[in-house]
Amino acid sequence: MSPRIHLPSGWVTFVFTDIEGSTRMARMLGPVYRPVLREHRRLLRDTLAGTDGAELLTEGDSFFLAFPDAAAAVHACMTAQRALVGHNWPNPDATPRVRMGLHTGYAEPRDGEYASPEVHRAARVAAAAHGGQVLCSAATARLADPLPDGASLLDLGLHRLRGFDDRERLFQLVAPGLERRFPRPRTADAAAHNLPTPATSFVGRHFERAELGRLVEAYRLVTVLGAGGAGKTRLAVELASGIVEDYPDGVWFVDIAAVTDPGLVAFEIAAVLGLRPEPGRPMVDTLVEYAAPRRMLVVLDTCDAQPGASAEVISRLLAGGRGVRVLATSRESFGVPGEVVWRIPPLSVDEEPGGGASDAVALLLDRTAAARGGRAPDPAEQADLRRVVRRLDGLPLAIELAAARLRVLSAGQLAERLDDMLGTLDAGREAAEPPPVEAGWSGNQQDTVDLVAAATGAAPPSPASRAVQRSASERHLTIQATVTWSYRTLGARSARLLRWLAVFAGPVDLPTVQWLLDEDPLDPLSVLVDKSMVLAEPHASGSTYRMLDPIRAYAARRLIETGEEQSARDRHVAWSRHALDRAHLGPDGRPVTLSLYALDPLAGELRAALRWCATGGSARSGLHLAGGLDQWWRERGLAREGRLWLFRLYGRIAETGEAIPEAELAAAYHMHSLHAGADGEFAEELRYSQRAEAAARQAGDRGLLARVLAGRAAPLVDMGQFAEAERVCREVIDWAYAQDVVGDALLAVYNLAELLWRRGALDEAAELLGAARPVEAARPVERGRRSVDMLLGMVALSRGDLVAAHEHLLVALRSRMSHGYLGRACDTINAIAVRCALAGDAVSAARLFGAAQATRANLRATPGIHGPYWLGRQAELRRALGDEAFDAAYAAGAGLRLDEAAALALHVEHPDLAADSPRFGTPTAGPRPAAEPRSTTG
């Protein structure tokens, strides 16, 4: 650095930058890397060093600069990131991903450099960032005023920087043109584990836990083998939770059952570790490089879902570094070098030496008490309980099934009926319905008769009956064998019902079962419940029926073997469409205000139906189902899942060539655009908005076209093109009025009102919303959101009219909470926080801000057009309360559930009831504009 460069003093903002993965990029690009590095330096000098910042050091791919002004430093970083993103690099793999960190502190230069801990803090802030991300400390965030147009700072919470004892609040720069979604910051206080918290107590297994713990300590790969339902996952999690402190880099649980493609196993593990794909590099290489220097335990669950891919990733992880250990659960071993296979035994059925209950009996006692509403079994039942667990060979899933039956039976009754359900006498229960004879199926009715005779001593067993006895003894080796033995005792109608029930993802009621079969299912259903193949769960409104997952998987395979899958799953899709349509209707069959709570119980079934539509059914039906969940996806923070289902359905259309009407395609593309915007994928949002418009014009449906066009402003707003967005909104609204379809253009009205509010045109916004109120009230799909009241509340806040703001916002919040619009409820809680702040209740305001932000983070919601407004009000609150008081109140709010936060907001005192209200003195405020009604009935 030249000694003539003037170094700022006093409050200095330090900026550090470097290229994420520069070493790997250099190896990958070879000779191409040098010009890429030169171009990277030029762009940064043009945007960073080209301002009033002083360049102190440039080394390799790193920059170190000092700015006299925090706002200028933030603006320079934003400009630099945009320049890097917009530059035409040689190829996508040659695009450098630069991370930037800013911190402001008091510093004085000496001899052309800074010797200050503030410099090191800035370097640690930069080290916490990811490529493409700009992080700044709380000091920089406080002094960076004003922010660039369209930019905001996203509060990422408190983090402990490496080498520092205190916690630093980190903020991410959010602005049009910058990437928004990143893994958690790379700080020293990352969670030590992500192990699931079981809902029920862990019973017994003391010896097994100790033995498995010794193996994990001695060997780097331990595979727990056992049948489905043997308790592999539960034991692995219990063991891992007790040794978290032994692994400084964490204990990480990864469920391979959720992986649908072998190539995604490494991605699933990387996602848990907070890693992202790197251009031009296999994900497994990134994973191995990350794990190599670390000491951590990876718990891979249900590896039999992807055995080959799991084995490959495990081998690479173990070869990459000596500090990594793997504890896997599977139904089959991997066969890789160094693997120690430990087979989980059944629960002990023998009494403890001191006379205590065995593990199997203890589990049955615990689960029976839960099944009976907390009432423990009678001591007189102990002997029968021991009989039960012995007959079940201590298999945990079988014990769970038995405990469920003890809801309605005594232990003695169950012990007797176990012979009927799982043993030799079971087959005789359906004498009127002979067991089915299927292709490839061993055994027949005569075998069953011989077995019954032998069990009763009527005659010596025949060779056929002895074969069945051998099968009976083997049924306890695995849960599959147990289910098979029960299944072969079913009559034709009961077996068919079991197979067809496999299409349901969760519990069903009796009318649903009848709808599925199109006949009275009571008789075969009673048989399945008696045999514990289906669990009956009584409720005040009627019983529901469900299968445990291993039984469902078994029944689903049988469904395929009998050639019934197409018919059964198409019937399930038809039921799902019917249930979805009914959620939009009242008891009289007329449309009612849409409540998203009505869709929550259907989510599992609709996902199962969508899966079939995307793989073996009708994509057109799938689009119908996805459309019924349109708002639900976004309000539950599942916009990304909604997009993935749509992509799968598009693929199904391409595969089958199924004809889809243009109107239905337009609706799907429009929905896709909204999902993409909610997920922060703005280019995709615009692309599908354009496709929706083209399809809607082809369809010739004016209402549909109005709905599609009304969404065209959203991508423009997301990209910061506010003037163009306002122009589009006005054009759409004028066209909709001319075509008499203004109700279908409500989204454009809401967007225009937000844009008017943003630039301070409050009177026009209020007038526009006043005219929209009756239109909204007439539309069941929109009126539950009460967007008019929400936006009128925002207008009132900007006018300082707390009475109107209070009334409008509480109406909006009540409606949104009562109809399940959780994401939108967060916006309303934020607005009520502003209303509290304006009334002088700063602590309540900070608590509500914390509660809203915590829920929005869980829902992965983007800040939206109101984001900078909330952040500005929070900054004012922080200045008013001070950091300590604000953080305490904010953290208290973040610990609230959404319903608790809503209750707190709804109990905020009405301004007219406050001691300084104009009602109790001389009014000082002028009359309210007529366009902003106080009525809360809307």
From TrEMBL:
Residues 13-126 form the Guanylate cyclase domain. It holds the Pfam family HTH_77. Residues 915-938 are annotated as: Disordered. GO terms for molecular function: adenylate cyclase activity. Coiled coil: none annotated. InterPro entries: A/G_cyclase (IPR001054), HTH_77 (IPR058852), Nucleotide_cyclase (IPR029787), P-loop_NTPase (IPR027417), TPR-like_helical_dom_sf (IPR011990). It comes from the Bacteria. GO terms for biological process: cyclic nucleotide biosynthetic process; intracellular signal transduction. This is Predicted ATPase. It comes from Micromonospora sediminicola. The lineage of its organism: Bacteria, Bacillati, Actinomycetota, Actinomycetes, Micromonosporales.
